[in-house]
């Protein structure tokens, strides 16, 4: 298969997987609130790409003139549970890969099924961490803030009263997960998050909420991990008590979960699926031409309202002025 020249814009854990399966990838870092023209991407990548992939940085739209880019454009969308405007923005791209499966209809209704794929999360591409003494009964690693994560904060506070062995901390998950008999995931946004895959790749026995998004199709509850109804404190407490009393079961499920992740859900697996999806749309000229033919409409219907929104949201700041200028372009100029 012909090697693609891809500019991968925005650092992401999938970077290493993409480089492993597609040598023609150049990673273009994206600073917060940075806006890039096509010429900027070419300069930073070191070549004129056949494909630009925007790796979701959970920020404002990062491209100017996107509707006119002369190469294939792909939106790798991760945080659609946070940003309701993502399906609209995706219309300005030729293709879209969506992390959260239950959100696919929002994108398909705008782009069509053939232009959208499901690309689930995965663990970072690292060797298995070393085994460590199990000093924690139940461990949660992540941000807990009464303002930023109020649901998670309240849930863990109540759970701590029922499970005295609960440890809530922050730090390097690869160092911390191996120290726990059980690892807890709390998906406040209802998303299938990366922590599921990272915990399993560390050989952890995982307790995670029933969130949908294909989780029960990727993993079998009771075989690869354990699930609980979202934010159900008593269910977690009961599950924890039963598993703490059954070490063989914990170890068996942890081993099966790790084996499955390493055989099917590594970064290189996701990268290969994405590259196959992109290659399946060769020749790219038809998609590019179709987008460019509707560039004026894309700008006025989709991009201009987003740019003006971000100009207002970021005011007063230099970045606000950039988005205001982008939104004020005449239709003739696009």
Automatic annotation (TrEMBL):
Query: Can the keyword Transferase be found in this entry's annotation?
Result: yes
Q: Which residues cross the membrane?
A: none
One GO molecular function term of this record is:
transferase activity
Q: Which InterPro entries match?
A: YkvP/CgeB_Glyco_trans-like (IPR055259)
Q: Name the Pfam families for this protein.
A: Glyco_trans_1_2
Q: Where is the Spore protein YkvP/CgeB glycosyl transferase-like domain?
A: 170-275
What keywords tag this UniProt record? Transferase
> Which protein is depicted?
Glycosyltransferase
